[in-house]
Every structure is written in structure tokens, then in C-alpha cells.
Amino acid sequence: MYKIAKEFQFDACHMLDGHNGKCHNLHGHTYRLVIEVSAHLIDQGSSADMVMDFADLKQIVKKHIIDKLDHAFIYYKNNSNESKIAQLLQQMQRKIFAFPCRTTAEGMSRYIFNELKQYLPISSVTLWETPTSYCQYSE
Ligand SMILES: Nc1nc2c(c(=O)[nH]1)N=C([C@H](O)[C@H](O)COP(=O)(O)OP(=O)(O)OP(=O)(O)O)CN2
Ligand SMILES: [Zn+2]
């Protein structure tokens, strides 16, 4: 079994409504995302001796995650304050993205894992929220 990984970066803004600290304010992060996939090697064709082509990995993560989150206001769809801001931004045709959970590094990592497992033999998601804080999610 092999593990390969590819790193991505995206910018997004969020707030953690109800957080007992500075993170209840609207603020932004340059997120670093590492997607790790695990599988045996492909035995023939143009991807022989690869787990998968890094180019294919990049295209899948970009399409299903990065393009949706980059430069968006990301928010918890069940939170009324966060949803009010999202609604206002949407009226201005600004980019928003609704999560089914709070936009913590933990919640986002799990969401990204569950989205990508439809398309990839994903083994872990590592999401860096700041240069010193990250969450790793695996199942
Ligand atoms: N377990 C978690 N704790 C916190 C999260 C989180 O997602 N999971 N998120 C936040 C805030 O979003 C905040 O932006 C990040 O907090 P922090 O790492 O404290 O940010 P700093 O800029 O202060 O980082 P330093 O590198 O320490 O300067 C809060 N907590
Ligand atoms: Zn934050």
C-alpha cells in the first residue's frame, strides 16, 4: 500500500459565531490543505506504477473543493447570524459557501474528507487554518 499527497491553498473568510474569543469576529485565513490518498499501484497504462496521477488528483480537488471555497465567505448554514451575512453577500453577487457544520478546522476537514471520498481513495485531510494551527481528519 502506498500513500501520496498533494498540497493546495485557498483564501476564505469566516466567523465562529458564539465563539468565546476573537474568532467570533469576521476574519480571513489563507488555508493550506493536504489531501492524502492511499492505494496499491496501478499496474498498466499511462499511470502505471502510480497510486494515481498527481494531475488527476489536482483536478479533482480543485473542482470539488478549491474552486468552491477560494475567496468565499464560508459559513455554518444552521447559524442565523452567519446566514444573515451570507444572504447579504449573496444579494451583492459575492461568493459564499454553506457548510453543514461550524467552519472550524475540524468541521471543514471532515466535510472535505466526506466530499472527496466519492471520487478518491482518500486516507486523510490535513487543514492548516493558520501557520501554527491544523486539524487532521481520517476514518
Ligand atoms: N480547535 C479549534 N480551535 C479554534 C479554531 C478551530 O477551527 N479549531 N478556530 C479558531 C479561529 O478560527 C482562529 O482564526 C484561529 O485561531 P488561532 O490559531 O488562535 O489564531 P491566531 O492567529 O491567534 O494564531 P497564532 O499562530 O497563535 O498567532 C479559534 N480556535
Ligand atoms: Zn478563523
Automatic annotation (TrEMBL):
Protein name: 6-carboxy-5,6,7,8-tetrahydropterin synthase
Keyword Aminoacyl-tRNA synthetase appears in the UniProt entry: no
Pathway of action: Purine metabolism; 7-cyano-7-deazaguanine biosynthesis
Name of the gene encoding the protein in the UniProt record: queD
Catalytic activity: 7,8-dihydroneopterin 3'-triphosphate + H2O = 6-carboxy-5,6,7,8-tetrahydropterin + triphosphate + acetaldehyde + 2 H(+)
Cofactor: Zn(2+)
Cofactor binding annotation: Binds 1 zinc ion per subunit.
Family matches, as Pfam families: PTPS (PF01242)
Upper taxonomic lineage: Bacteria, Pseudomonadati, Pseudomonadota, Gammaproteobacteria, Orbales
Leader peptide range in chain numbering: none
Enzyme Commission number, as recorded: 4.-.-.-
